[in-house]
Write a structure and sequence with these properties.
The structure holds two protein chains of two kinds. By secondary structure, chain A is mainly α. In chain A, 65% of the residues lie in helices and 4% in strands. A two-stranded antiparallel sheet of chain A has the order 1-2. In chain A, helix 3 runs parallel beside helix 5. In chain B, the strands form six sheets. In chain B, strands 1, 3, 4, 5, 6, 7, 12 and 14 form an eight-stranded antiparallel sheet that branches. The chains are: A mainly alpha, B alpha+beta. Chains A and B meet through strand 1, strand 2, helix 6, helix 8 and helix 9 of A and helix 9 of B.
């Protein structure tokens, strides 16, 4: 099975890689996250990947199926390093409305894709660089991602969903360098959903990073 | 044209070429003609460190048509830019123009021998980004002139290039010039951040092609697609050809439209526009040509290193490899422009920086660089309150308050969590100057945040929010006390770059100026300054990292600290070094290797280095960051022979200043301000008796304080005794 974990996707840039036991836990968490979002998504994603195409939305009759299929497509597009296409699909789905209980998940996924789009690298005339090459665009994508998470939180009261969304926000903040803010959001996620393993690990990791500032080389060597 | 043979040529003339430079054509449109004329007619150039001055080099060059003397970066390329444009051109001394997507090479050949010389690229007129390169071979001189025409009605900036060959020999010469495109992929230098992902179709010239877009237009009238002109030039004859290269591939028709007007006319218009832009702000006149030229060139770099995105103007790091925003750099550019009187542009830039505010309050442009918040708050104050409060300050004050709340929450959280340095900002991973690898609590992040608090306090006062201002100022004092406590807890002397002790000098060098966290005479500051000067391989500049790498703009904040500590000689040394270590076109690199005199792929001009030059020159003359006006804080004696400043924006309005020196008399004349003014004598001099009764409220050996609304002072001076060892 092709994992669709953000931490594992090649275009994702994760400066704060979990160290030691966290690294192992991180991988497991990512997998858990994807499975919890949509088990069928991964399965059907595999099937679609095998066909080499994304299912057109027009073929989907029911709202449920449409939402699920779009999530499938978005996940697959994201895993295929094409977050922009996933963003387009998800925004289209949100524009059509009527998503009901799916809305928070769609917005969460959209936030993930926006975040990935900010870090997606491409080859320009033989040189690797960010696709969102200017920081106003990148910052705009981050801000749009957090705005989606705001909306997603407003669309659900499920502790599990809220825990997921807050941990997701924490991850965005952590990657962008707001370690202390991330720590606060991991704490908020763990408070609302004490079983959220991602939040618990994030909480421990960020506290470790905050308390043990050192000169450990960054994993990607980016300067 | 009986004696002239040519297969493909334009504007071939048998008129003997002038032997020297005549100020005509494009230069006639330049408001700096008087300056150029002055240079050429005998204002003595001031040699620096035994090197021929820029003035001397240009005179030699134009008078004798010989290669320009190489400076420290004699073969460095020049930049062609235009404010707000999203691409620029890099022009090299071997005839290449690079827009970050494709390279256009202009090749010359004499008697079948390809000219491979690499010559100096300089701006002419000085400070105006019109690049010139000259070379001579087999008695034929080549003169390449390139200018970037702004987008205007055409929609895309286009480089207009004119190549002129002149036969200075006594024999007929067969010469050829042609243009060619480097095939992709790019192997060197930089890539435009908006370059296409795919390689696409090969680049083609405008003529004889059916392509929808072209990469260049070569000469006129030839029926085929070859970009070649061949001439046979008799002695004294000259010929020229024009080439147009767009910043982005464009329809051939667009280039044909531009080609309808002469290169000379385009350049004259461009020079006039640049001159008007450069002279629209604060102007300085000091009897030191290099200083004036460096100031104007740096202003051009600052204006040119801006990019417009979705209607917002943002400051970029440089025209080539740093086409992005770093708040730690962009704010410096905005503030330098504000100090230089380009208030409208500076305010537009800080408006653009608001886009970098995150929903939870802080400002951040690049991962982990938490000093962005302090930088932006500082810049808002510096830009919006000169020469008077901007009308829309409340909008900015609200944004800044959100940032301040974030900072205070962070400080409280680091305290609650019991971090190593609780009460200061948390560790971060800037992936940049002070800590390329690793994570630490950065001294500079705290220093800049404190500077931001000061700026916010001023902003709030300016918009009548006194209560908020009091709260912010009180928090600043608490923060400053915490900073001091952290410093006192460190066993090592000086001020480290990080609270954990490791890292490179960076924000710690800014604690006196601009951050005003510590006083200039603080022993730890003195120790730090002594160390950085001691370690540097180049007097006036500071070392970056290890070995022989020297940094340019990083030296400017220590120079300000020296100024404020009453040691202007060190600031003058830094200014001299900043001026010296520039390219022939006046661009400063960010860093360079002192031993090999190279800047590698870190191409000049760097905008922050330009900002450092402008800021230092301005503050040496007019300093207004206190509650009093300080004039001639760092003006050397040599500038006193008729120095003047016009339209300097200060916190109390625009200000003119004129200095006179006659024998033992020193005279200041300036626009009165409603605060006391502190006047400083040049280094090496002291008062010869008290000022005239009623003119001053206080004085000591090198300084005189005059009351508010005074506008002139005359004092008698004498040489100060040299300080003992």
């Amino acid at each position: 099975m092709q994992p669709v974990a953000r931490d594992a996707s090649p275009q994702t840039f994760v400066p704060v890689q979990p160290r030691g036991p966290y690294r192992l836990l991180g991988g497991a968490l990512a997998l858990t996250l994807c499975c919890s979002m949509s088990v069928t998504a991964l399965a059907s994603g595999e099937a679609l990947a095998g066909q080499g195409r994304i299912a057109p939305l027009a073929d989907v009759e029911s709202l449920e199926a449409r939402a699920t299929t779009t999530i499938d497509s978005a996940l697959q597009l994201a895993s295929l390093s094409n977050p922009q296409a996933a963003i387009r699909d998800l925004e289209g789905l949100l524009r059509r409305g009527g998503l009901g209980p799916h809305q928070w998940r769609v917005r969460s996924l959209l936030a993930m894709c926006l975040f990935d789009a900010a870090f997606k690298t491409i080859d320009r005339l033989g040189v690797q660089g960010r696709q969102a090459s200017v920081s106003p665009t990148r910052i705009g994508l981050f801000k749009a991602a957090t705005a989606q998470l705001d909306s997603a939180e407003a669309a659900t009261s499920s502790p599990v969903a809220l825990g997921h969304l807050r941990a997701q926000r924490a991850k965005i903040l952590e990657v962008c360098g707001f370690t202390l803010d991330a720590h606060g959001w991991y704490r908020a996620a763990a408070t609302v959903d004490p079983g959220n393993l991602r939040a618990l690990v994030g909480l421990a990791r960020t506290l470790d990073l905050l308390r043990n500032a050192d000169r450990t080389p960054a994993p990607d060597g980016n300067e | 044209m009986d004696d002239v043979e040519f297969s493909r040529s334009t504007r071939v003339s048998t008129t003997p070429a002038p032997s020297g430079l005549s100020i005509s054509g494009p230069l006639a449109a330049c408001a700096s003609v008087s300056l150029i004329a002055a240079i050429l007619s005998g204002i003595p150039p001031r040699a620096i460190a035994g090197r021929p001055s820029h003035t001397a080099r240009l005179s030699v060059h134009f008078g004798q048509a010989e290669p320009v003397t190489a400076g420290p970066f004699g073969r460095a390329p020049a930049a062609l830019y235009w404010p707000g444009a999203t691409r620029a051109f890099l022009v090299t001394g071997d005839g290449e123009l690079d827009n970050g997507e494709w390279v256009t090479r202009i090749v010359t050949e004499i008697e079948g021998t390809r000219d491979t010389a690499v010559t100096t690229v300089f701006y002419w007129p000085p400070s105006i980004p019109v690049a010139r390169t000259l070379r001579e071979s087999h008695g034929v001189s080549w003169d390449l002139e390139a200018a970037l025409l702004p987008a205007g009605q055409f929609g895309t900036p286009v480089a207009s290039v004119n190549i002129r060959a002149r036969n200075r020999s006594r024999r007929m010469r067969a010469v050829r010039v042609w243009g060619e495109f480097d095939p992709p992929p790019r192997k060197r230098r930089f890539v435009a951040p908006d370059a296409p992902e795919s390689l696409g179709a090969p680049h083609v010239w405008a003529k004889g092609t059916s392509a929808t877009t072209v990469a260049g237009w070569f000469g006129g009238g030839e029926p085929d697609s070859s970009a070649t002109s061949t001439w046979r030039l008799p002695p004294g004859a000259e010929a020229s050809i024009r080439i147009l290269i767009p910043t982005y591939a464009v329809p051939a028709s667009m280039l044909a439209t531009i080609a309808a007007a002469r290169h000379e006319d385009h350049v004259a218009s461009l020079i006039a526009r640049w001159t008007a832009m450069l002279d629209s702000g604060m102007t300085i006149a000091v009897p030191d040509w290099e200083v004036v030229s460096a100031y104007r060139t740096a202003l051009g770099v600052l204006l040119g290193c801006t990019e417009r995105h979705q209607g917002k103007l943002v400051p970029i790091g440089n025209p080539f490899q740093y086409r992005d925003v770093w708040l730690r750099d962009g704010t410096r550019s905005a503030v330098a422009l504000a100090l230089a009187g380009h208030s409208a542009t500076a305010r537009e830039l800080v408006t653009g920086l608001l886009a970098y505010q995150w929903p939870h309050g802080p400002f951040l442009s690049q991962q982990g660089q938490l000093d962005g918040t302090g930088h932006v708050l500082w810049a808002l104050d510096q830009v919006l309150l000169r020469p008077g409060p901007a009308p829309d300050i409340p909008v900015y004050a609200d944004a800044a308050m959100a940032a301040w709340r974030w900072c205070e929450a962070q400080r409280a959280s680091t305290q609650i969590l019991g971090l190593d340095q609780g009460g200061l900002l948390p560790p971060s991973e800037p992936r940049d100057n002070e800590l390329p690898h690793g994570r630490a609590q950065l001294v500079g992040t705290d220093a800049w945040a404190i500077a931001g608090y000061s700026g916010l306090g001023r902003l709030l006062e300016a918009c009548g929010r006194e209560n908020d201002a009091r709260v912010v100022i009180r928090s600043r004092e608490r923060y400053r006390a915490r900073f001091r406590l952290a410093l006192d807890s460190m066993t090592a002397p000086g001020i480290p770059p990080t609270w954990q002790g490791a890292g490179n000098d960076w924000g710690n060098l800014s604690v006196v100026y601009p951050c005003r966290v510590l006083e200039a005479d603080d022993p730890r500051v003195a120790e730090m300054l002594a160390r950085v000067h001691r370690e540097s391989p180049e007097p006036g500049l500071v070392r970056y990292g290890v070995f022989d790498t020297v940094h340019t703009y990083l030296s400017a904040d220590p120079a300000h600290a020296e100024l404020l500590a009453g040691r202007p000689e060190q600031a003058v040394a830094t200014l001299r070094a900043l001026i010296r270590w520039r390219t022939p076109s006046g661009g400063s690199p960010e860093i360079f290797a002192r031993d090999s005199l190279t800047h590698g792929d870190n191409l000049p001009p760097h905008a922050t280095a330009a900002a450092a030059l402008v800021t230092l020159i301005r503050n040496m003359l007019v300093f207004d960051d206190d509650d009093s006006l300080r004039l001639t804080l760092g003006v050397p004696q040599s500038w006193w022979r008729g120095a003047s400043v016009r339209r300097a924006p200060t916190r109390w309005g625009r200000l003119d200043l004129a200095l006179e020196s006659s024998g033992s008399r020193r005279v200041w004349r300036w626009s009165p301000v409603p605060v006391p003014t502190v006047l400083t004598l040049p280094p090496g001099f002291e008062l010869d008796g008290p000022p005239k009764p009623g003119t001053a409220v206080a004085w000591h050996s090198r300084e005189v304080v005059v009351p508010p609304r005074a506008g002139t002072l005359t004092v008698k001076v004498r040489h100060a005794p040299r300080a003992g060892p």
